[in-house]
Predict the structure.
Amino acid sequence: MGFCRGAYAVEQTKSRFLPQLKGRLTVLLLAALPLIFAIVSVAFIVQFQFDNLSRVQLTSVEPILLQARKDEIRDFVQTGRKAVVDLIKRNGNTPRTQHEAREMLRSMDFGADNYFFVYDTRGNGVMHPRLPAMETHNYWDLKDPDGVMIIQRLIKEGEAGGGFVEFLWHRPSTGLNEKKIGYAVIIPEWNWMVGSGLYLDAQQETESRLRESIINANRATRQQILLVSLAAILMVFVGVFTLNLYEHRKANSKVRFLAQEVVRSQELERTRVARELHDGVSQSLASVKFTMESADIYLDRGKTEPASASLKSSIAQLIAAMIDVRRISHDLYPTILDDGGLGVAIEQLGREFSARTHVPVLAEVAPVPLLKREVAWALYRFVQQALANIESHAHAGTVRVTLNFSHGIHLHVGDDGIGFSVLDCMHRRSGLGLTSMRERIEMLGGEFEIQSRPGMTILKAYLPLESLRTD
C-alpha cells in the first residue's frame, strides 16, 4: 500500500508539473517570437537600406573620382604648356627652340602609359614618345572604335582654351584598346596642340576598393545585429524562466505581467535600434567619410583650397548629423507630453512638421480630461506616425489634425495627398507604420479606421471612456 501511495503521489506531481511546463513554454514563445520577428524585420530593413546607401554612395563618389583624375591630367598638361612657354620666352621662337620643346615634352611623363603628345592644328603628328612613327603622318581623320574623331576633338577643345575628350586608345603596356580621358591646350606660337591622357582603370580600381569596403561594413553590421539579437533572446529566455521559477503560484497575474513586459521590451528594443542604427545618421556619417577622403586626396596633391572646402563641408554635415541625433532623441521621449499635455504636444508636432516640410497643418485641438500616461503616449505616437507617413508617401498640400472629446477621445489625421489602397496595404502587410498604429489603439481597447482615396486620406482613432479612466 505504501508503494501504491508513493506511485500515486509521483503521478499527481507529474500531472501538476506538465501543465506548468506547458504554460511556461507558452509564455516563452509569446515573449521570444515577437522579439525574433522584430529582430529579423530590423535586419531586413537594415540590409535593404544598406544596399540603397551603397548604390547612392558609389553613384556620388564616381563624379568625385573622375573630377580628381581630370584635375590631375589638366595640371600635368598646364605644367607642360608653361614649361614650353617659358622656353620660348627664354630662347626665342626658333627651330632649335621647337626641337628643345619636343624633346623636353618627350621626357616628361608619369608612368608607362601616361605621357605628352603633340600634333599641329592640321592634324600632323609632331611628337609621340611611345609611337615615334606617328610623328610623320597626318591624323586629322583618326577615330576610335566608337567613332570619336580623336584629333579633331582634342584640337577643338584646345582652341577653346583647354578641354577634355574621352576616347578609346591603344595602351602600350597591355596592347589593348582601353578607355582614356585626354586634355589638350594650344601653343599658338607654333600652332601646336599639346595634350596628355590618363587611362581610367585607376578609377575603376578605386571604385572596387570602395565597393569592397562597403561590403565589409555590411558584413560587420549583420554580425553586430546577430550578436545583439542572440543576447536579447537569451535575456528573454532567462527572464521568462526566472519569473516562472519564483512566481509560479501567481500564474495568471504573471502571464498578464509578462505580456506587458513583452510590449515594453519591444518598445525599448525599437528605441535602441532607432538610436543606434538610424538610417539618416548612418548616411550623414558615410557622406562625411567620403568628403574627408576627398580632402585627404587633395592634401596629398598639395591642393589646400579644395581640401579646406571639403573639410568645411564635412563640418557642416557633422553639425547636421548632431542636430538629427538631437531631434531623434526628442522624438523618442517627448517631455512636452508631461509638461503641456496631449493637446500642446500635438500642436507642437504640427508646427515641427510644417517647418520641416512647408506643408501647412490645420490643428483643431479641443480640451480633453487628464489621461493616463500610456493613453497620452499612444495618441501622441499615433499622430507622429501619421505625419511621418504623410511626409514620406502622401505628397500632400494640406494636413488636418482634430482632437475632441465626446463619450471618449476622437483623434483624426487627414491629408489631401495621393491616397493608397487600404485593402492592398493591409493584405500585403507592407504598412508596418499602419500596423503599429492599429496595435497601439486596439491594445487600449479602442477602434482604428482608415479611409483613403486620391485626394483624401483620414486615419481615425477612438478610445472609449473605459480606456481613459485614471488609476
User: Anything to note?
Assistant: The beta strands are 116-120, 125-127, 163-170, 177-187, 192-199, 361-365, 399-405, 409-415, 447-453, 456-463. The mean pLDDT is 78.
